Amino acid sequence: MFKKFTPSTDIAGQTPPKSSVQRSIRAAVLQQWKIGPETLEEIWPKKETLIHVKCREHISIYSVQSVPLFFQHFDGPFYPTLRLLHQYPSILPKVGIDRGAIRFLLAGAPMMCPGLTSAGGYLPPSEEALPKGTAVAVHAEGKEHAVGIGITELSTEDMRKLNKDVAVEVVTHLGDDLWALQTL
Amino acid sequence: MSSSDQQEPQAVRPLEVLYCQICTFPPEYCEFGSSLTRCKEWLQGAHSQLFDKYYSDEALQSKIGTLSLEAQAKLEKDSAKKEAKAEAKADAALKKKMASQVSIKRIERNKRKHVTAIHGLEAFDIELKKAAKFLAQKFATGASVTKNAQGQDEIVVQGDVSDDVLELIEGGAGPLKGVPADNVVIIEEKKKKAVE
């Protein structure tokens, strides 16, 4: 999603949304992420106004004090930026990829099932299975921090069963243009 | 989810994450970047403990993990190649930067009035908008960033200030830092006769 992103041409405008819209965004974030209202308050204090940065192809980045915090594609789920995820690693469910897949991920490729089901990969156990279309933090074998953020294309159970094709579509990863964008 | 919220009403403290000063990745991912050698140097100097953690022999051994030896060798070769490539690219970019010119053009408006167009500053990582504002303030005139006939951005300052601008650029004042004086040329352009 952010493989090619140049702020000067791809940003259409920055506006603060209405406070009612901000309220609904806050509610949606609380519902979608594993995060308490207090923690969200730390990240995004009530007094700070959110800035909606409109970008091409229906991407909206939301920033507080010109630091991008989370983004959304069309009406999809909210994704935190990778820097925010590094600070609060618990807000998204985790999946892990093996070492061989890291360099493909860093090139922006979607993650295939075998990379997650192999010995180095990690999938949540069956009782915590994730449905299709969940935002996940992609961790890497032997690494402490997340390497990317993606959305599941299959439920985790199906990943185990089919073990073929795309499992996680990567929306942002280390070193992409959103990562390079430290302030807006 | 809601139950855990009730148990811990305090906010979760954010994790302090160290990022590499060279490639901006967390240091554990430097090996996948394109500047591993320099990243290593930086880490060794700034955080020697972490350096030992990531690059000691045991760490390197365990890192291989589930990967076969061949795949590991290939990965290493790839990363070396990538690094060389990135270096070559950076070199080429620098060379291009050094070769690019900044032109200060004096354009005649009517007999006694001129504007000064400064072109090519963006090659030296100067923010044109800021530079224009700076010049406007300096000379107390209008200055703006406009597109010229070729569609490239340039700064247009009202009045004939070409010599002063040259001085400022050479002196590296304010936002106009980092332009070598040899790369700046002054051009004078007479107003073309209107075609009847």
Automatic annotation (TrEMBL), chain A:
Origin: domain of life: Eukaryota
The keyword Lipid biosynthesis belongs to this UniProt entry's keyword annotation: no
InterPro entries xref list: MCT-1/Tma20 (IPR016437), Pre-PUA (IPR041366), PUA (IPR002478), PUA-like_sf (IPR015947), Uncharacterised_CHP00451 (IPR004521)
PUA domain location: 93-175
Biological-process GO terms, alphabetical: formation of translation preinitiation complex
A single GO cellular-component term on record: cytoplasm
GO molecular function, one term: RNA binding
Keywords, in A-Z order: Cytoplasm
Cytoplasm found in the keyword field: yes
Compartments where found: Cytoplasm
Family named by the database record: Belongs to the TMA20 family.
Record's protein name: Translation machinery-associated protein 20
Organism of this sequence: Suillus placidus
Automatic annotation (TrEMBL), chain B:
CDD domains tied to this protein: DENR_C
One example of a Gene Ontology biological process annotation: formation of translation preinitiation complex
PROSITE patterns from the UniProt entry: SUI1
Recorded GO MF terms: mRNA binding; translation initiation factor activity
Start and end residues of each SUI1 domain: 102-173
Cellular location(s): Cytoplasm
Domain notes: The SUI1 domain may be involved in RNA binding.
Family stated for the protein in its record: Belongs to the DENR family.
Complex and partners: Interacts with the 40S ribosomal subunit.
Protein name from the UniProt record: Translation machinery-associated protein 22
Organism: Suillus placidus
